[in-house]
Amino acid sequence: MKNKKCNMILAVFSLSLPAILTGCGSSQGGANGEVIVYNWGEYIDPDTIDMFEEETGIKVVYDEFETNEIMYPKVESGAASYDVVCPSDYMISKMIENDMLAPINFENIPNARKNINAQYFEQSKSFDPGNKYSIPYCWGTVGILYNKTMVEEPITSWAQLWDEKYSDNILMQDSVRDAFMVAEKMNGFSMNTVDPTELETAKNSLIEQKPLVQAYVIDQVRDKMIGGEAAIGVIYSGEAIYTQRENPDLEYVIPEEGTNVWIDSWVILKDAPNKENAEKFIDFMCRGDIALKNFEYITYSTPNDAARALIEDESIKNSSIAFPDLSQYNNLETYVYLGEDGDALYNNLWKEVKSN
Amino acid sequence: MTSKNKWLSSPYILWSVMFIIIPLGMIFYYGLTDKTGAFTLENITAIATAEHAKALWLSLLLSIISTVICFLLAYPLAMILSNMKVNQHSFIILIFILPMWMNFLLRTLAWQTLLEKNGVINSILNFLHLPGMNIINTPYAIILGMVYNFLPFMVLPLYNVLSKIDENVLDASRDLGAGSVHTFFRIILPLSIPGIISGITMVFVPALTTFVISTLLGGSKILLIGNVIEQEFTQASNWHLGSGLSIVLMIFIILNMIASAIFDKEGEGSML
Amino acid sequence: MKNTAKHIYTALIFLFLYAPIATLMVLSFNASKTRSKWGGFTINWYSRLFQNEEILEALGNTLLIAVVSAFVATIIGTIACVAMTGMKKRSRTILMGITNIPMLNAEIVTGISLMLLFISMGLRFGLGTILLSHITFNIPYVILSVMPRMKQLNPSTYEAALDLGASHVTAFFKVVFPDLLPGVLSGFLMAFTMSLDDFIITHFTKGAGVDTLSTKIYTEVKKGIKPEMYALSTLIFITVLILLLLVNMAPAKNKTPKNPKPL
């Protein structure tokens, strides 16, 4: 198959791009079968996949998604049969509710309990009661990234995102839940609220804020903050270390009103064709040295104690951004699935904000 | 000829039924049912809600403006190009398609780098002590993005028809005493109508449904109908509403048909 | 004077079209990983590119899909154009209306509707499903490029050829096709390019582990575009540009006269 492909391309494009030649390097299926992994884009160090294939003889078919919502219908429809997926908290509870996940046999994944700090399993209970279906892979907080040279006082609160001083200098997150989380926390509500009056208040806050916002963005916060395009931006903590490295004027803070603690976890699908290999894959990812490699590559906080112990750079190891002491903060919450009605409510309100 | 042609059209008809009509039927099914599978018109009438109507109106406005700008830019250019003594038509065509060999997303991101407050253009203006330009995250940036991305779709069909006009016809017109303005409006413009219609379709339609451009260059502050549909499918997971709103957008197929029927005086090939 | 104005106008349009391309090229030599900071000059990303198997495989897939889908779409589309001119006005209108659907529909709707179709057909998602989808959305571009040419054809030349004893096939290839060729060619190129550029439809119709450049780029957006991508884009662009210049400067064997006179 691969060879045929090469020939066809070469026949047609023999003049151009000798690069194709190297692109068709053969990769045969593993001696011990395969495992099909569906993960966030750029959310793993590709070396660790090679290492896994070498050590176990299992071929990894690796696919990536951009958002939980894009991942869900593809998995649900069975368009492609995956074994291991790495969704976020609230999506895991939705998948549990819709009976899409297989309970995990922790005996086959010894590294999970051994290396993953128990507090993250505790935190996971909000979306996976009893810790039956998920094993934390990455976690983090959502906070404010600000440019010290562009603000007049230190940023400590979500409310400062409503300060007219920073008009046209504010970057908000362009996703329903994250945007509403900011407004809800600012108003002192739970970020999982479905109370109509509370949501109405949050919506009005967002509409009030809109003229001050430079742009609603997801991935662009990083580049825009590094380039000094804006003074304040709402950002995931995993991006903060990288942005600081590129621009030392940037500072990350968890606002005093509390925020979202999110967890992305490995799950095994109920219809997974290669359950055993899936367990081996997850176990491998929970190994200290592998988790360390992944942490260094993607810079999102790892819940893996063994990996953290191996970090050589003391400033990163004790970084309050990568490893904040969560007991110091109030009102930390994790998203839960709000049900179809709750989701619809949020989406409609968000549309009102955006079209205003 | 006719009997042969009937046979010739069968592969395409077969393909259309399989990969256009049947999938379209599925969209109609989703658009006309609710989550329980019961028939409803709710997803269609949802276009009348304030947010959706506004999004549709904005999309129409921006895409019409972009189409007009594209046309005004492209027509003179296509005329200049068709008069050039270039032997290889494919060369000119390639020049316009070449930018598309860089990925659409990368090109649009590049505009961000160019237009940002501390971007390339402003740095140059700054260096020349000229006032800066602040259009990123405004509707103007979206229009710019649309014109940039879809301009080739307008130039190419125009160039295609204009270069096909027989020079003898133009000579004849001049010999008969027509001025260049007269020749243009009486000969060139009418002869290029198939290209104009084709160009308008190719610009207006993608501009109307885009969501990437408004997200990247509009800072996501302006909600277009494309964004609404995209969000219903990828964020809200409400395929029924997304399908319903797409059905509404399909009304523009019909409008398109009517427009081209009016413009096609000879009554042949009414869709172009 | 008038010519100068024409040249300036053309130059401005090209500047507009190529400014972002130049920006991307410059970024491919940027030592800093972020697009918003200049970190000095480097050609490092080019050597990194050739070690990156994932990107190279995605490139292979992209080219394969683009070539095959554009080729098939051009054949089906051109035949359809020829067939449509002989059709009754009403059926032609209907068929052209159907043709416009994949262009008019929001891409995401086309993508999802095809995904639903493939699921119901029980097809395995992979290169094959991507190909079918790409051919589908490529055909309209071919038809829209060929149709204006078709309409400018003088049907009597074709009939004259038949009267002179040519078979339908010969008459088509000797008389009709040369006049259609520019349209067919631009249709093919358009189809090829649209396929190269597509993300959304590919995303919904691809299977696990099959990536094209654009799906790769979209997933990369999450963590920032890797500079290797800028490097690859620059290489592709330069390659095509050089090929184009070579073709154009080579002694032309089959130059078509600018305004082919009717027979």
* Count of DSSP strands of chain C: 0
CATH fold-level label of the largest domain in chain C: MetI-like fold
Indicate the overall shape of chain A.
globular
Give the ordered list of helices and strands of chain C: HHHHHHHHHHH
Q: What is the beta-strand fraction of chain A? A: 15-25%
Q: Report the count of strand segments of chain A.
A: 10
Rg for CA atoms of chain A: 22 Å
State the separation between the terminal residues of chain C, measured CA to CA: 37 Å
Low-confidence stretches of chain C: 251-263
Helix fraction of chain A, binned, reads: 40-55%
CATH topology name of the largest domain in chain A = D-Maltodextrin-Binding Protein, domain 2
Q: Strand count, sense and closure of the main sheet of chain A?
A: 10 strands, mixed
User: What is the structural class of chain A?
Assistant: alpha/beta
Written overview of the protein:
- Chain A has 356 residues and is an alpha/beta fold.
- Chain A has two domains: 2-139 and 263-323, Periplasmic binding protein-like II (D-Maltodextrin-Binding Protein, domain 2), CATH 3.40.190; 140-260 and 330-355, D-Maltodextrin-Binding Protein, domain 2 (3-Layer(aba) Sandwich), CATH 3.40.190.10.
- Chain A is 42% helix and 16% strand.
- In chain A, strands 1, 2, 3, 4, 5, 6, 7, 8, 9 and 10 form a ten-stranded mixed sheet that branches.
- In chain A, α8 (176-186) crosses α9 (196-209), α9 packs parallel to α16 (339-355) and α10 packs parallel to α11.
- Chain A is globular and about 60 Å long.
- The termini of chain A are far apart.
- Mean pLDDT of chain A is 87; it is low at 1-28.
- The longest helix of chain B is centred in the first third of the chain and has 34 residues, at 50-83.
- Chain B has one domain (47-263): MetI-like (MetI-like fold, Orthogonal Bundle).
- With 272 residues, chain B is an all-alpha fold.
- By secondary structure, chain C is mainly α.
- Chain C has helices spanning 2-27, 44-51, 53-85, 89-104, 107-121, 127-152, 155-163, 168-197, 200-205, 213-221, 227-249.
- The radius of gyration of chain C is 22 Å and the shape is globular.
- At the B-C interface, α1, α2, α4, α5 and α6 of B face α1, α3, α4, α5 and α6 of C.
